[in-house]
Amino acid sequence: MKKQTDKIDNATKQDRFLTTLGLAKRAGKLIIGWDRISDYTGSIETIFISSDASERTIKNAGKRSETVLIKRSMVAVGSALGIHRAAVVAVTDTGFANLLKSKLNE
Questions:
Q1: SS (H, E, C) 23-88
Q2: Strand order across the beta sheet in which 66-69 lies
Q3: Please, which residues have CB within 8 angstroms of residue 97's CB and are 6 or more apart in sequence?
Q4: What residue numbers bound the domain in which 77 lies?
Q5: Taking a C-beta distance cutoff of 8 angstroms, is the pair 93, 29 a contact?
Q6: For a FRET experiment, which of 12, 20, 62, 93 has its CA 20 to 30 Å from that of 3?
């Protein structure tokens, strides 16, 4: 039984970034997809880019705001957000952006 608990704890630690990303979406502080990000006229704190995003997406996002490459696939990011896949997401809130960055370092 102890081994199952250890596995659950490890899975929870690995998913904290994605869980927080989902929370940011529910709070309305997240923009999903490059087309929406490029059309957004407000302030963007940080753009998170999945590990398998295209070079073009990475290049374009770098022109818009601070970017952070994450070690998560488009499918993993999309799954956390309740969609099929997401290569790029932008956070519009400073608090959520800082929280998400800290979750990457855990």
A1: HHHHCCCEEECHHHHHHCCCCCCEEEECCCCCHHHHHHHHHHCEEEECCCCHHHHHHHHCCCCCCE
A2: 30-32, 88-91, 46-49, 66-69
A3: 45, 46, 91
A4: 2-104
A5: yes
A6: 20
Residues ≥6 apart with Cβ < 8 Å to 59: none
**pLDDT tops 80 at residue 72:** yes
pTM (global) more than 0.90: no
How far is the CA of 45 from the CAs of 6, 53, 93, in angstroms? 35, 20, 6
**CATH at 32:** 3.30.1330.30
Band (11; pLDDT cuts 50, 70, 90): very low
Burial of 104 per CB tally in 10 Å (0-12, 13-18, 19+)? middle
Domain total of the chain: 1
